[in-house]
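Dear support,

I submitted the protein below through the web form. The confirmation email said the job was done, but the results page showed an empty box. After a refresh the structure appeared. I'm attaching both so you can tell me whether what I see now is the final result or a partial one.
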Amino acid sequence: MSSGAFSGSPSDNPTGFMAAVGTVDDAVDRLFEPLRGRPGIDTAAKVITGLGDHGVLWTAIATWRGRRSGPTRKASIRALGVAGVSSSLVNAGMKRVVGRARPDRSDLQISNVGMPVREPKTSSFPSGHTLAAFCAATVLSRPGDRSGNALLYGAAGLIGVSRIHLRAHHASDVAGGVVIGTVLGLVVRRFR
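What the results page shows now:
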């Protein structure tokens, strides 16, 4: 359950800021522990995380928003393309630079009900699912569409929570994904 250092070996003894981050990560993980192993919650987390894989959810939303021909369709396709490419590049670059170890999943108690979860192979910071989700939500959001925007950001938040529940990421990885994805989304919005 130990959160590990952002750089170097997970067995390094972090001090200062990183020790504080590790303490918060461990506390958040303990909050999720009573929910793990419950088939309904575990299945929901697996499905939600699966919808975040490879932008499945965001492609469906962009398709729905662009269902009518014209400028709205072009804007939706452009938004999805720009968000997908930029979030992938930023995420891959940051993961290489930071190189943080993933959470220890050896004692993870998740029910076997439902779909399997893809085993993460990259480093942990930031959460790529969360970064992409918040980037896409920001780019696909529309001024004045309060309910639509709430659904976008709510779905993005659920993807982040699912990553913590499944112990695919530390809470700070998800928080980093929220911040980086939102900022990136604001930057690339002008290209939609």
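Response: this is the final, complete result; the empty box was a page-load delay. The two ends are 41 Å apart (CA to CA).
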